[in-house]
């Protein structure tokens, strides 16, 4: 697409996974407020043209049936506060999508919409199924969202949908296959998108290395030319990024916020995350180039689950882990903070 040169930035994060203790720490007594926990990333996200989150929880419209153990349903204020931080959209396809059932699916979409946040992922009707989230920026962006499963109780069966909701297969990458995702991306471009971002909930939980499935899918999608950026989540650890066919795949952005960590039996890296910022530049001939910077983050469980920016001087061990992980795939991404 020929036209006036333009540049936008897209910032993305890893899993927003509010365990019950995270919600407890956000409680005000009369509601919930997550801004203190998330405030540190506001300058990055709000300063970007588009901010995208990975929402690994249902949302409750009336703050009932909230998270218990590993069944996630979060207060409506979470969406309000994600919007305050600067997020324009969220991926909602993950293995906890169905934790609150059909009601949770419906309410999640409503709560996000009521707070001005676009949802890329499963819809509560066949008519709305498969539609991307779209972002009207100087370079138009569409976002698609897929997961290995939508039901945590049967997460090993990667093609089954809840009874009565067959259209949810549109968000299962094992059911769609690479060809189906590429076809979705091409439809988004035919509808006017210049860039297609694909959010993928994939890989092995607590695995620092990418799986054969991630590698194969990432290669096929980016080499097709139809998909421009892949944002990965689910492993709960930061995994390498790579640049394939001039396009980035972030295999896993780790956790933005959760209570995971060594104190609860998770790997030390489960407190690490990344705010990745992709710079997309279009020249006069319509060619779009990419560059990538990232800000390591760390969840301070002892400070009411506050997300802090990890640097060489603040949480240096977390910073070093994240930089090493991001660099392991030969990616040309640069950390936002100096390395010394």
TrEMBL record:
<protein>
    <recommendedName>
        <fullName>Capsule synthesis protein CapA domain-containing protein</fullName>
    </recommendedName>
</protein>
<dbReference type="InterPro" id="IPR052169">
    <property type="entry name" value="CW_Biosynth-Accessory"/>
</dbReference>
<comment type="similarity">
    <text>Belongs to the CapA family.</text>
</comment>
<feature type="domain" description="Capsule synthesis protein CapA">
    <location>
        <begin position="9"/>
        <end position="260"/>
    </location>
</feature>
<dbReference type="Pfam" id="PF09587">
    <property type="entry name" value="PGA_cap"/>
</dbReference>
<dbReference type="InterPro" id="IPR019079">
    <property type="entry name" value="Capsule_synth_CapA"/>
</dbReference>
<dbReference type="InterPro" id="IPR029052">
    <property type="entry name" value="Metallo-depent_PP-like"/>
</dbReference>
């Amino acid at each position: 697409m020929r036209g006036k040169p333009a540049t936008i930035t897209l910032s993305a994060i890893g899993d927003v996974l509010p365990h019950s203790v995270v919600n407890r720490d956000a409680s005000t007594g009369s509601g919930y407020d997550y801004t203190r926990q998330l405030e540190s990333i506001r300058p990055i996200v709000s300063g970007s043209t588009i901010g995208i989150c990975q929402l690994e929880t249902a949302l409750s419209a009336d703050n009932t049936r909230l998270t218990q153990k590993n069944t996630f349903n979060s207060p409506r204020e979470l969406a309000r506060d994600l919007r305050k931080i600067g997020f324009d959209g969220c991926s909602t396809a993950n293995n906890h999508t169905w934790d609150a059932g059909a009601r949770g699916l419906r309410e999640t979409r409503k709560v996000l919409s009521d707070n001005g946040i676009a949802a890329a992922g499963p819809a509560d009707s066949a008519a709305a199924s498969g539609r991307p989230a779209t972002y009207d920026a100087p370079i138009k962006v569409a976002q698609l969202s897929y997961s290995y499963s939508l039901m945590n109780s049967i997460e090993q069966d990667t093609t089954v949908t809840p009874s009565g909701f067959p259209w949810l297969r549109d968000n299962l990458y094992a059911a769609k296959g690479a060809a189906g995702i590429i076809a979705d991306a091409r439809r988004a471009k035919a509808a006017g998108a210049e860039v297609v971002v694909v959010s993928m909930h994939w890989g092995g939980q607590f695995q620092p290395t990418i799986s054969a499935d991630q590698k194969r899918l990432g290669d096929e999608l980016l080499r097709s030319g139809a998909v421009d950026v892949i944002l990965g989540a689910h492993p709960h650890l930061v995994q390498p990024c790579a640049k394939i066919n001039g396009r980035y795949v972030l295999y896993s952005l780790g956790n933005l916020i959760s209570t995971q960590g060594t104190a609860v039996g998770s790997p030390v890296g489960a407190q690490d995350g990344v705010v990745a910022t992709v710079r997309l530049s279009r020249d006069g001939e319509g060619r779009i180039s990419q560059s990538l910077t990232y800000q390591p983050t760390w969840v301070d469980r002892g400070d009411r689950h506050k997300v802090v920016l990890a640097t060489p001087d603040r949480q240096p061990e977390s910073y070093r882990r994240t930089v090493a992980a991001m660099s392991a795939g030969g990616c040309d991404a640069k950390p936002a903070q100096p390395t010394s």
